[in-house]
Design a protein that fits this description.
about 350 residues; alpha/beta; 3-stranded antiparallel beta sheet; 11 helices; 11 strands; L-malate dehydrogenase (NAD+) activity; Lactate_DH/Glyco_Ohase_4_C; Malate dehydrogenase; tricarboxylic acid cycle; Malate_DH_type1
């Protein structure tokens, strides 16, 4: 019975919602690194990546605590060979990687602003991305570390400085915004959340997060006050969790889940099965040089960035309102590297 339960759990994890690739997934096993693996997001994310059948090697890196996390995760009965690395092992952790996921840095705490996060996390992301540029410049980069609106431009500028920048390879993970929008929309309208899709565009902080409920499926007409409340809740989802945890954490579990879903899509794309996801990338579809929208993920990363489609008047207003903050955040990231 124990082995049957284990098999059932593994089957669920490998096929979670639309999600983790099934055990029969085609294509080669991939090497994946999680940088910041001992943290609040890193630990559950490491476990979820160990459960992904497309992963054959899993490198777990952090400045402290990683051997214990790696030992724990390595006992899970899936094929990925897991190794832990401390601050002196970053190069080895990265060599040969196909996908590098970066949740490293400090989480948001009550009272912290995005500026507070920037002061700490900007340097961490820059230094880790520099190592990626040296040791696995062709890898896909999934950036989770906040503020994503600035850390993705930081990553891009650092790789440009090194001469190894490829806009197809760098993605800010905004999947949690999509996960929240789907959940809140389904709950409000009595829908099966597994059947729901809601694109979320813009950025990954406050008003820069714009759920396109006019494009949601199944289509449900909602009163304006309900629409505004759902939009606001999606934008403030991270704050909702920070406040609920009362200073003892941020949205670590849901973020790890969302990051694992997005990483799975990246791996499927690498292995020849294209996937469509919302993610924050270099973009020309608006005035912002980086913008989250639907993209096609394929064998080289971002294969196509899709236009926004038809927006409601309310969404057009939201798009206009986000631009000053989004552009300022992007410029702040660019200047951090250029002035460094």
């Amino acid at each position: 019975m124990a082995s049957q339960s284990s098999a059932a759990l593994l089957k669920w994890a490998q096929a979670a919602s639309r999600g983790f690739a099934a055990a029969a997934a085609s294509g080669p096993g991939r090497k994946v690194a999680v940088l910041g693996a001992a943290g609040g997001i890193g630990q559950p994310l490491s476990m979820l990546m160990k459960m992904n059948a497309q992963v054959s090697q899993l490198s777990l890196y952090d400045i402290a605590g990683t051997p214990g996390v790696a030992a724990d995760v390595s006992h899970i009965n899936t094929k990925a060979q897991t190794k832990g690395y401390d601050k002196d092992g970053l190069a080895e952790a990265l060599r040969g990687c196909d996908l590098v996921i970066i949740p490293a840095g400090v989480p948001r705490k009550p009272g912290m602003t995005r500026d507070d996060l920037f002061k700490i996390n900007a340097g961490i992301v820059r230094d880790l991305v520099e190592a990626v540029g040296k040791h696995c410049p062709g890898a896909l980069l999934n950036i989770i570390s906040n503020p994503v609106n600035s850390t993705v431009p930081i990553a891009a500028e650092q790789l440009k400085r090194m001469g190894v920048y490829d806009k197809r390879k760098i993605m800010g993970v905004t999947t949690l915004d999509v996960v929240r929008a789907k959940t809140f929309y389904a709950e409000k309208n009595g829908l099966d959340v597994a059947s729901v899709d809601v694109p979320v565009v813009g950025g990954h902080a406050g008003v820069t997060i714009l759920p396109l409920f006019s494009q949601a499926t199944p289509k449900v007409s909602m009163p304006q006050d309900v629409l505004e409340a759902l939009t606001k809740r999606t934008q403030d989802g991270g704050t909702e969790v920070v406040q609920a945890k009362a200073g003892k954490g941020s949205a670590t579990l849901s973020m790890a889940y969302a990051a694992a879903l997005f990483a799975d899509s990246c791996l499927r794309g690498l292995n020849g099965t294209p996937a469509v996801e919302c993610t924050y990338v270099e973009s020309t579809i608006t005035d912002a040089p980086y913008f989250a929208s639907k993209v096609k993920l394929s064998t080289e990363g971002v294969d196509k960035v899709f236009d926004l489609g038809t927006l409601s008047d309310y969404e057009k207003e939201g798009l206009k309102a986000m631009m000053p903050e989004l552009l300022a955040s992007i410029e702040k990231g660019v200047q951090f590297v250029k002035s460094g």
